[in-house]
Every structure is written in C-alpha cells, then in structure tokens.
Amino acid sequence: MNKTKITDEQWKLFSLYLTRNNKSKAGRPQRIDDRIAFEGIIYVLKTGIPWRYLPKKFGAWQTVYKLFARWAKSGALEKLLDTFKESADNEWLSIDSSSIKVHKHGSAPRGGQKKTKHRTKQRGDNHQNPCGD
Predict the structure, then answer these.
(1) What does the CA dihedral 72, 78, 84, 90 come to, rounded to 10 degrees?
(2) Whole-number Cα distances in Å, 47 to 3, 28, 50, 84
C-alpha cells in the first residue's frame, strides 16, 4: 500500500473537513483537485522535503502549499486530526529503542569531573579595565 495515497473511504471522511468553498466566481478557476493536493501535503509531511521539491503529479507546489496554509489557518486540519486520533489504528506508529555505545574517551572520567577549589587564571586577568569597571 502506498503510504501517500488515500483510499476512497478515507477521502469521503477527509473531504468533509478539507473541501474548498468554490461558490465564488471571483479569481481563477480551480486547477487542482483537493484530493490530489491533500495527497501532496501528506507526501511533503511524510518525506520532509521542501515544498519546492514536491513532484509535479501533485500539482504546482505553490497551490498545494496555499491550500495547506488555508486549511491550517481555518482550523480544518486540526479538526480533522482531533476527529480521527481516537480511531487511529497505529499502523505507522513506531518506537525507537536503539542504543549506541559511546567510545571510552567520549564520556566523562569515572567518578565524574573533578571540581577544583580555585579558578584558573585566564589570560588578561591581571590587567585593569581602562573604563574603571
């Protein structure tokens, strides 16, 4: 199963939250399908690529980004997530429990770092500030 493609059943539910108001006759006509744009948003969020590198099959990156920003600003994405977080199947959930051994010189010495009573003298400590501070 392609992780960026959504099924028809999923889109029926998602489209209740994410459809655009297309009743206005002002501006350019819609050039991209909401479903394709939503799949483009999922692609960007899952892969972590910059918006400019969005593949052309999802439409112009500017259009997809504007839809993402519009849906985020209107609260539609938050409502969508709130609605579906309860019924999540955790298919993509993973917990990383890997550990990496540190080289013996990469950590503090046994017993922790030793504390010294006296501050080490740094270069220039014996000079007075000409401003009188």
Answers:
(1) 80
(2) 11, 30, 9, 21
Place of tokens 């028809």: 8
Q: Record the pTM.
A: 0.58
Q: Where are the alpha helices (DSSP H) in the chain?
A: 8-18, 34-47, 61-74, 76-84
| Cα–Cα distances in angstroms (integers) from residue 9 to residues 13, 97, 103, 126, in the given order | 7, 34, 52, 77
Residue 130 has pLDDT above 50, yes or no: yes
The reply to whether 14 falls in a domain is no
> Is residue 48 situated within a structural domain?
yes
Q: What percent of the chain has pLDDT over 70?
A: 56
Of 115, 103, 86, 110, whose CA–CA distance to 13 is shortest?
Answer: 86
Which domain, by its residues, includes 78?
A: 35-86
Compute the average pLDDT of residues 110-121: 60
What's the mean per-residue pLDDT of the chain?
75
